[in-house]
Amino acid sequence: MPATPFDSVLYGKLFGDPEVGKLFTDSAELRAMLVVEGALAKAQAGLGMIPTEAALAIQRDCLEVTLDPAALAEATGSNGVSVPAMVARFRAEMLNAEAAQYVHWGATSQDIHDTGLALRLRQVVALLEERLRDAVAHLAALAETYRALPLAARTWGMAATPTSFGAVVASWGLPLVRHVKTLRALKSHLLVVSLSGAAGTLAAMEPDGTEVRAELALALNLTDPGSGLHSTRDHIAGFAAWCGSVTGSLAKMGEDVLSLTRAGEAVLAGGGSSSTMPQKQNPVQPSAMVALARQNVGLVANIQGALAHRDQRDGAAWMVEWLSLPQICMATGRASTLGTEIAQNLTPEPETMLKGIDDGRGLIYAEALSFHLARTMPRPEAQAAVKELCVEARALNSSLKPMAQNRWPDRDFGDLFTPQAQLGDAPSEADRFVDAAHAL
Question: What is the pLDDT of residue 271?
């Protein structure tokens, strides 16, 4: 197995995300940074900081020159960042030697690297939002169809009271709706220009440094943060935390699907096969989704730790972001596609669900019975009586309903011992999710 399975030929179909992955290649990084260099030259020429002819040449060559990442590797290993080698090689490739001196004028490596990252993260964010919306749409269809399909709710792993399959699906989808809304608010803080100069003062671009930053933001369709970002990394940490929340919410869905398929209460098409057991269809998709979320926990923690950037610029903390953020994006991207695949391929098994609700003893209706009795007797007395009846039902392997009728022959229990009567707000919860999904 390679150092990271995200880039593995063998494991790539399980954990990888080709669309997100292509944004985190060496070539994609260099291309984005060259775009930034070209836009920076244009902004500086507009303010008279560098000659217009030089800026035009820089812009043109930034779009046309292709740099070989391997040719920059030795210098990057020595410099600790790829920008110095990139700038040197780009200047050497330029046809206009006079214009080459104005490349990277007054900027520092972190300015170019971080702004190039913002350009790539913009595409990542667009992919993630589209996929989450797709997952929400498929989950909403499930919730609407099965809004009132009875299912045993489980607390602490044990059958508790009836709920509906639609409400369970809603519990998967509603967090995703919130994540999409949060992402929309997060974009302006994440997708920002970083331009602060060597020590965060823009001294080399005085007196027009802040204007250059504003023009660069406009040219790249990014936000001008109005300040330096070299050592204040809450925008990166916030996005990483959002990714962790997304994969965590998807993992909740994965864990529930694993429980449902294990109990036979749902079938997930497209499962994996066993090397020795012909009858098995393993729930690979939800398992991978849970694993990706657990992996993200550690990676997101790395980013949170890197918030503590020392002084005005910190190489070590910055490097932690390089090591962690691409994998966070890959894990989130793959988990988002798995969420949609599961929503498309999951089918409930109503008969098995009914067996999970009532195994013949009807103990799942104990709470409903105690509250029914509490209408005419003190609640503690009613609860104690029902608890005693449950003990007898287990000992005699009998049904709670006839035992309750014998104990209180004058009471009319109506449809109390039916799952439909005990769904409570579950169908409405499914409806609220469907409405939220349609409004997204």
Answer: 60
φ and ψ at residue 360, rounded to 5 degrees:
110, -15
CB proximity list for 336: less than 8 A, separation 6 or greater: 128, 131, 132, 135, 246, 250
Alpha helices in 263-307 (DSSP H): 284-305
DSSP-assigned states of every residue in 53-72 = HHHHHHHHHHHH----HHHH
Q: Which residues pair with 150 in a beta bridge?
A: 164
156-161 own/partner pairs: CB under 8 Å, 24+ apart = 159/356, 159/357, 159/363, 159/364, 160/364, 161/364, 161/367, 161/368, 161/422
pLDDT at 1: 64
Q: Which residues contact 432 (CB under 8 A, 6 or more apart)?
A: 170, 174
SS3 at position 336 = helix
Single-letter residue type at 82 = S
> Which DSSP state fits 13?
H
Question: Is the full-model pTM beyond 0.85?
Answer: yes
Residue 207: is the preceding peptide bond cis (ω within 30°)? Answer: yes
- Contact between residue 212 and residue 205 where contact means Cβ atoms under 8 Å apart: yes
Q: CB under 8 Å to 121, separation ≥6 — which residues?
A: 190, 191, 239, 329
- What total of structural domains would you count in the chain? 2
Based on the fold, state whether residues 323 and 398 are members of the same structural domain.
no
Single-letter code of the amino acid located at 218: L
The reply to whether 291 falls in a domain is yes
User: Going by DSSP bridges, is the β-strand pair 150-155/158-164 parallel, antiparallel, or unpaired?
Assistant: antiparallel
Geometric angle at alpha carbon 184, from 178 and 190, rounded to 5°: 120
Pair type for strands 266-268 and 346-348: antiparallel
* Together in a domain, 71 and 193: yes
Question: What pLDDT does 279 receive?
Answer: 47
CA distance 438 to 440: 6
Looking at the fold, whether 290 and 393 belong to one and the same domain comes out as no
CA 301 to chain CA centroid, nearest Å: 15
Element holding 30 (H helix, E strand): helix 26-46
Range of the domain at 393: 363-416
Report d(CA 98, CA 196) in Å as an integer.
26
Give the pLDDT confidence of 213-269 residue by residue, as tens digits: 999 999 999 999 999 999 999 999 999 999 999 999 999 999 999 999 999 999 998
Do residues 436 and 144 touch, judged by C-beta distance below 8 A? no
- DSSP conformational letter for 272: B
Number of C-beta neighbours around residue 293 at 10 A? 25
Show the low-confidence residues of the chain (pLDDT under 50).
Answer: 273-280
Decide: helix, strand or coil at residue 191: coil
